[in-house]
Amino acid sequence: MLNGAFFAGHYGGRSLPADISVPPGHGHNLIIPTSLDMTTPCPPGTDVDAFFSGCSEQRGPVRICYHDAADSCLALVDILQVRELTDRNNGAISIWLSKEEQEYIGRFRFPKRHQEWFSGRIAAKAALLRGGNYLEGNFSPGEITVLGDEHGRPVLMQPQCVPMPQLSISHSGRYGVAMVSLQACGVDIQHIESRIANLGDHIGTEQEITMAAELVSGSLVEGLTLLWTVKEAVKKCCLHDRPGLFTATAVNRIFCKRPGEWIVDCRLSGKGQEVRVALLGGYMLAWCRREHNA
């Protein structure tokens, strides 16, 4: 990593504090060659297995890991293991997906998109079935249907429950993750890559970017990724039916809970929303439940 002062203190035409590090090769306007797709080294964070420390379960080649809270559950799967599962052609689709979901996934032409969507459904159903807290009765994964609504938000179509569990799904790189709660929720995971620096002006204000980068070991790339995941999680939780991605969410303060974990205080339409963030190796994970006053 090179110090920001090396590039005359400029980031996309704006002032960049000298103690904010810039990815190697990203000069005056941080123009990243399209061929560059490397993961920037991360400051020390939480190991994926340490964070998803709930009792994991093995379903064939797929290991499902959990992070449990009193009011929600996160489930994570490795997309590489899901690929192995589908390559075996052992009926995994019919075991995990309902007939409606099988019809939907059949539309995907590219294996990568197929595996990402499948991994999200595995994670969502694993979280729904976790501990019997969210579904009334005993169900197999193939009896559960999770499809997108008119805005693309994942919704539990079957079985019908009161209260209805709320879902959020995300995938990036090698991981798919899902969140379930009895309140509106949002989760986002992002592989930390230097090319995100090209999107700085679209992700946050100068104040937000500086604040985030300073708190994440002075790294511009990790700071931008933190802001991206936070605002994406808030959009999924509170703004899924509104156009635009990040402009409606303002980041006011970021508190370090412990090394590699933060609590982010956001504002949208003048109301508060708290988001949790964890740095997991080369990934940033953000999740939230809708606040009562949001």
Structure description:
- There is one protein chain.
- This protein is of the alpha+beta class and 294 residues long.
- The chain folds into two domains: 2-43 and 189-289, Alpha-Beta Complex (Ribosomal Protein L22, Chain A), CATH 3.90.470; 56-164, 4'-phosphopantetheinyl transferase domain (Ribosomal Protein L22, Chain A, Alpha-Beta Complex).
- The protein is built from eight helices and 16 strands.
- The protein has helices at residues 48-51, 79-87, 92-96, 99-105, 111-129, 200-203, 206-215, 220-238, and strands at 2-3, 10-11, 14-15, 21-22, 54-59, 62-69, 72-78, 145-148, 154-158, 166-172, 175-181, 185-191, 250-258, 261-268, 271-280, 283-289.
- A five-stranded antiparallel sheet has the order 5-6-7-11-10. Strands 12-16-15-14-13 form a five-stranded antiparallel sheet, with helices on one face.
- A hairpin with a 2-residue loop joins strand 2 (10-11) and strand 3.
- Helix 7 crosses helix 8 (220-238).
- Mean pLDDT is 82; it is low at 1-22 and 24-43.
